[in-house]
Design goal:
Shape: globular
Distance between the termini: 5 Å
Oligomer: single chain
Number of domains: 2
Strand content: 15-25%
CATH architecture of the largest domain: Alpha-Beta Barrel
Helix content: 25-40%
Number of helices: 17
Radius of gyration: 22 Å
CATH topology of the largest domain: TIM Barrel
CATH class of the largest domain: Alpha Beta
Length: 469
Amino acid sequence: MNKYLTAVASVLVVCLLAACQSASQPVITAITNVTVIDAVNGVRTNQTVVYNGDEIVSVGPGQVPADVAETIDGSGKYLIPGLWDFHVHLSYDRRLTDDMPALFLAYGVTSVRDTGGLMHRMLPIVEKMRAPGAVAPRVWFAGPLLDGSFVVYDGVSRKEIGVPNATPDEARATIKRLKEQGVDFIKIYEMVTPAVFDAMVETAQALDLPIDSHVPLSMRAGTAGPPVDSIEHLRNIEMDCASNAAELLETRLELLRNPENLSGADLRSSLHELQRMPAIAAYDEARCDQVIDSLASTIQVPTLRLTALNLAPPFDKPHWNEALARIPEDVRRAWAASAARVVSDPVPSETAFGEWTRFLTGRMHQRGVPIGAGTDTPIYMAIPGYSLHTELEQLVAAGLSPLEALRAATVRPAEFFGIENDIGTIDPGKRADLVLLDADPLSDIANTRQISGVISKGRFYDPAELLTN
């Protein structure tokens, strides 16, 4: 999976660069006669896009500059910025870890944000992906899930990707240590207390670390959402959208004392099971709109391919089996069995929750809340790279336009890290992360799957070669 590709010629696209490009001698390349699409500039037809190594040099109509060494014919094709999967777990299933980078690139995902993994596992993965010449997307990582006294992902009932933070002082020390170890942001989880949450936010902001979070069960979304930069899964927002939100919170706070000494995972699950669907049934539109409006500056990452999976199962798609064949055999067998169980024994509450998350995503979008595209891969049958295109389709089903869905997978992630001047659109001076498509993604967002070529850090890759090596 992790081999360099040599230059490959085709009738429609001249595949190049791997054999002759190096960091010291970048090749100046032009993609000609192409329709350029990004979420800021919209649609530009008959363009020539020139990049020199990892930098876009020029975008516009006209002749190919004299200093261009290689040309890609973009006639009849569409060029979009490299895509992000804004919620991944590179270390979650070590059977997949080594294959994930090339899979991401093959599906046009040129940047990923890892939202939870223990540092001793994450640091070698990130170092390998960031090595010069690595066939891998750009990567940003948070380190472990920062949980409370009780840890959901504790390595016993769930995979171990979380760490405890029982007190504010412990939380401050943990985040300072993570900063020293090189994390790019932090991830706050669901079992923290309000005091620990406040200490985490204060410390991260002082250290200039972006903050990703779930809404803690001990807090309301309207309180926990505004101080952080992104929220995952829309989870626990339904509690604050209910007409009896105060009563629900009072019950949660009592149960979080954990008199039965449940594990973190069981405690969280019991609260979700007890309150999630009743809260949705008690939806109060006016109250929920107030909550939504309080989140106007907080990117929401609904991960609809997960939360609304039963509304559009990926295994019903004609290309599912082909994609499944590209992952390791033991994982493939396990996921095929999981898919069969979902088909044979659907859970009505999961469909209802999927309908809610689609609705809430659309409502948030209508009221101006920023949406980011993430999939939680490889959790619950999310094929790395492939799952991002399912997420884009789900976002459109929730009410985003195809161009707005592309914004969720390009511009919004860049804004989270404050790097929108470097990445996310196709403009001079931006990084050379690009995806060449055979069909128009604005006429059908599913056309983001029709990938002709991927440019990552200025290198051109044939997706078919990535998927077969």
